[in-house]
């Protein structure tokens, strides 16, 4: 069971609290309908039992207070409203709690301008972050040690997530659903909530996130290189040289850390890129095949079916975004 703690800060946006609660609760129902158990224990968490929002127009009754949560798996920080510095000042009591949970292994996701509260913890210093385009300049001035990624829908680094403005936080929520469940459940959720699931191509691949929860920095460096250069041809020897490790030792360490051989990892990265292209573009099979670095149609079809369970044509027909509505 994954414990999801949705924060209810002062001066926050009501919808950015209700939406993640609705989504994770709905995914539980999808899983139950498919004969599985619920995965998420979703709680609204606040400094107080009751939090008034929008000048008292709404009143949120939290499920549990910060002081009563010892450990959680995911902290969701909703968007803030009004003057950002004022909102941060009102919620200073949350900052050490967020930091403590992160240090204890929790992942932290900020929605839209919730990034201001996350950045106030100092956890984003030296890291990348997304936020609403209309607040980027203000964010840069307040947090010069954080790298704001222009135009990015989702940013993820070291188990810290952030999203762009307004409704783009739905893409981050779907990204988390895919990470914790699987691709099919995320697609089902995208259909149910009528959200386009496609993401920018530079967004790292969700299914491989868990395979980076290891301490081998050389292997992580190789993984990052593969994910950013999967269209190119390169040899295992070249990868080993890039991370300054002998080939035999590199292959052994890579398998131990990721549970995939180097070749398997490269193939799965290529197939994930192809799947996303089939879901969100009008490119034909050959175009996608060349885009991800294959030139042999038969080999591409065989590897794609082995990994996804469907042929490229079957996958495109089933999951192309034109059919998501």
Order of helices and strands: EHEEEEEHHEHEHEEEHHHHHHHHH
- The poorly predicted ranges are 199-210
- What is the β-strand count? 11
Taken from the alpha-carbon principal axes, the silhouette is globular
How are the strands ordered across the major sheet?
5-2-1-6-7-11-10
CATH fold-level label of the largest domain: Rossmann fold
Written overview of the protein:
This protein is of the alpha/beta class. It folds into 2 domains: 2-199, Class I glutamine amidotransferase (GATase) domain (Rossmann fold, 3-Layer(aba) Sandwich), CATH 3.40.50.880; 204-325, Arc Repressor Mutant, subunit A (Orthogonal Bundle). Helices cover 46% and strands 13% of the residues. It contains 14 helices and 11 strands. The chain has helices at residues 14-33, 84-90, 94-103, 115-119, 136-142, 169-180, 183-192, 217-228, 236-242, 247-258, 262-280, 285-291, 297-308, 312-319, and strands spanning 2-7, 40-46, 50-53, 58-61, 64-65, 74-77, 107-110, 128-129, 147-148, 154-157, 160-163. The strands form 3 sheets. Strands 5-2-1-6-7-11-10 form a 7-stranded mixed β-sheet, sandwiched between helices. A hairpin with a 4-residue loop joins β3 and β4 (58-61). The longest helix has 20 residues, at 14-33. It is globular. Mean pLDDT is 89; it is low at 199-210.
List the helices and strands and how they pair.
Elements: E1 2-7, H1 14-33, E2 40-46, E3 50-53, E4 58-61, E5 64-65, E6 74-77, H2 84-90, H3 94-103, E7 107-110, H4 115-119, E8 128-129, H5 136-142, E9 147-148, E10 154-157, E11 160-163, H6 169-180, H7 183-192, H8 217-228, H9 236-242, H10 247-258, H11 262-280, H12 285-291, H13 297-308, H14 312-319
Parallel strand pairs: 1-2, 1-6, 2-5, 6-7, 7-11, 8-9
Antiparallel strand pairs: 3-4, 10-11
Helix pairs in contact: 1-6, 1-7, 6-7
């Amino acid at each position: 069971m994954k414990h999801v703690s949705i924060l209810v800060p002062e001066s926050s946006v009501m919808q950015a609290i209700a939406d993640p609660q609705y989504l994770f609760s709905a995914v539980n129902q999808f899983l139950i309908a498919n004969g599985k158990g619920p995965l998420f224990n979703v709680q609204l968490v606040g400094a107080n039992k009751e939090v008034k929002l929008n000048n008292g127009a709404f009143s949120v009754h939290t499920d549990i207070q910060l002081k009563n949560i010892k450990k959680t798996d995911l902290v969701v920080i909703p968007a803030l409203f009004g003057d950002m510095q004022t909102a941060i000042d009102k919620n200073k009591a949350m900052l050490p709690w967020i930091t403590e949970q992160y240090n204890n292994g929790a992942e932290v996701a900020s929605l839209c301008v919730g990034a201001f509260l996350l950045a106030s913890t100092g956890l984003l210093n030296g890291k990348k972050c997304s936020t609403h385009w209309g607040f980027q300049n203000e964010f840069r001035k307040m947090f010069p040690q954080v790298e704001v990624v222009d135009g990015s829908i989702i940013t993820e680094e070291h188990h810290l997530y952030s999203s762009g403005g307004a409704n783009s936080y739905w893409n981050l929520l779907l990204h988390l659903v895919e990470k914790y469940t699987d691709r099919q459940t995320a697609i089902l959720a995208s259909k149910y909530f009528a959200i386009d699931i496609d993401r920018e191509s530079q967004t790292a691949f969700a299914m491989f996130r868990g395979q980076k929860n290891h301490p081998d920095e050389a292997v992580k460096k190789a993984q990052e290189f593969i994910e950013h250069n999967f269209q190119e041809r390169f040899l295992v020897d070249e990868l080993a040289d890039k991370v300054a490790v002998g080939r035999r030792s590199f292959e052994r360490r890579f398998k131990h850390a990721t549970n995939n051989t180097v070749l398997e990892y490269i193939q799965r990265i290529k197939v994930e890129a192809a799947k996303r292209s089939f879901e969100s573009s009008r490119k034909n099979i050959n175009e996608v095949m060349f885009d991800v670095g294959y030139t042999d149609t038969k080999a591409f079809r065989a590897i794609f079916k082995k990994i996804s369970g469907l042929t490229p044509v079957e996958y495109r027909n089933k999951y192309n975004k034109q059919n998501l509505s």
